[in-house]
Amino acid sequence: VLGPAHLFRLAGKCFSFVESTYKYEFCPFHNVTQHEQTFRWNAYSGILGIWHEWEIDNNTFVGMWMREGDSCETKSRQTKVHLVCGKSNKLAYVSEPSTCVYSLTFETPLVCHPHSLLVYPTLTEALQRKWDEAEQLLYDELITDQGYKKILKEIFEEAGLLKATEENEVEKQSKKVTLEFETVEKCSKEYRQLSEEMKKLRVLLGQHGIAYRGNSGE
């Protein structure tokens, strides 16, 4: 459970909405389900998404993404829950803007205060400092607006508010490898270890009658 602390009181609760023959149930920080209320023997009942990450726009929490629900043709069902100000906690509207992608509107008095969904106050002091530094760099025109947004995205991912994409994870891993080769000594040590591993692998290949083709550069 990550995000605005005052919304955590919604955790463990569920809110229902009935439209036509379907009953939708939204359980904040947990999942969204759909139940077909008919007497058909194969009435649908399943998961439209599991709590995944926040939707952040203009440095404000604007919605919750529920992803990796039940399979739907070649993809998984997913749902975006929009948080809007309301007199009571209730699921007010459900739609399916595109196939297997659902949109829910959840009303709650917990988001009525103009500062209730700001991202900055939910961050640790270290990440707030990182954000402050990015603001200063942008003000001094040392980074572009695009560079500033990239730093913010990294901050949100580090805070766990957004899930890092596979590309970002690969980039992080490559950075770690780069750091390991900062000095000649480290590079030499790694080279020796890799050479030993290569020798062992060649022996194994030979034992199984598999030809090895390569050069010293490899």
UniProtKB/TrEMBL annotation:
Cellular compartment(s): Golgi apparatus; Secreted
Keyword annotations of the record: Disulfide bond, Glycoprotein, Golgi apparatus, Secreted, Signal, Transferase
Recorded GO MF terms: transferase activity
Taxonomy, superkingdom: Eukaryota
Domain (DMAP1-binding): residue spans on this chain: 119-218
InterPro entries per record: DMAP1-bd, Gtb1-like, Man6P_isomerase_rcpt-bd_dom_sf, MRH_dom, OS9-like_dom
Domain called MRH: residue spans: 12-114
UniProt xrefs under Pfam families: PRKCSH
A GO-annotated cellular component: extracellular region
Quaternary state and interactors: Homodimer; disulfide-linked. Hexamer of two alpha (GNPTAB), two beta (GNPTAB) and two gamma (GNPTG) subunits; disulfide-linked. The alpha and/or the beta subunits of the enzyme constitute the catalytic subunits.
Function: Non-catalytic subunit of the N-acetylglucosamine-1-phosphotransferase complex, an enzyme that catalyzes the formation of mannose 6-phosphate (M6P) markers on high mannose type oligosaccharides in the Golgi apparatus. Binds and presents the high mannose glycans of the acceptor to the catalytic alpha and beta subunits (GNPTAB). Enhances the rate of N-acetylglucosamine-1-phosphate transfer to the oligosaccharides of acid hydrolase acceptors.
Name listed for the protein in its UniProt record: N-acetylglucosamine-1-phosphotransferase subunit gamma
Organism expressing this protein natively: Copsychus sechellarum
